[in-house]
Amino acid sequence: MKRLKQPLIDALVQAEIEDVLQTYETALNASDTATVLSVFQSDGVFMAPNSPATVGADAIRAAYDGIFKAISFDTELMVEEVVQVSPHWGFVRTNSRGHVTVNAAKQRVPDANHELFIFRKGDDKWKIARYAFASTIPLPK
User: Fold this and answer.
1) What is the pLDDT of residue 1?
2) Dist CA 40 CA 119 (whole Å)
3) How sure is the predictor about 101, in pLDDT bands with cuts at 50, 70 and 90?
4) How confident is the model at residue 44 (pLDDT cuts 50, 70, 90)?
5) Cβ burial 83-114 (10 Å sphere, 16+ → b, else e)
6) How far apart are the two ends of the chain, measured CA to CA in Å?
């Protein structure tokens, strides 16, 4: 994970949030649903393009199990901005790039997205409360 810009935020809070993002990136690249779940709040919301929102741990587990069955990731998150809006809430804007492999076809294709993570601090730990992303790869003409 790379940090592209230096945000104005307490260094400890920034480090804690970036550690969560690093754990998420590593879990994504390892197709590790259990670790993905460990960085989400139990009532977290995952919003993937062209899909209804996935709400709560059981639904997020099922969504990532399905994603990891279909594709494998080789991607890197780049932090663009970290903002703490209150003692228990913050957001992070990232970009990612890399490749996904369509498992059934063994086809490797480019992947690039921009992401918005909303974090909530509970039990003295920052976790992902909401996560949405969209592709930045132009549609074919």
Assistant:
1) 60
2) 9
3) very high
4) very high
5) ebeeeeebbbbbbbebebbeeeeeeeeebebe
6) 32
Asked if residue 110 has pLDDT above 60, the reply is yes
pLDDT in the model for residue 104:
96
C-alpha gyration radius of the chain: 15
**Phi-psi region for residue 72, left (φ > 0), alpha (ψ -120 to 50) or beta?**
beta
Distance CA 134, CA 95 (A): 10
Q: What's the one-letter identity of residue 69?
A: K
> Residues for the chain: how many in total?
141
Amino acid 79 reads V
Quick one: tokens of 51? 């899909």
Q: What is the dihedral of CA 112, 92, 29, 16, to 10 degrees?
A: 160
Residue 33's pLDDT is 98
Gap between the Cα atoms of 20 and 72, Å rounded: 20
The closest of 92, 84, 85, 122 to 21, measured between CA atoms, is 92
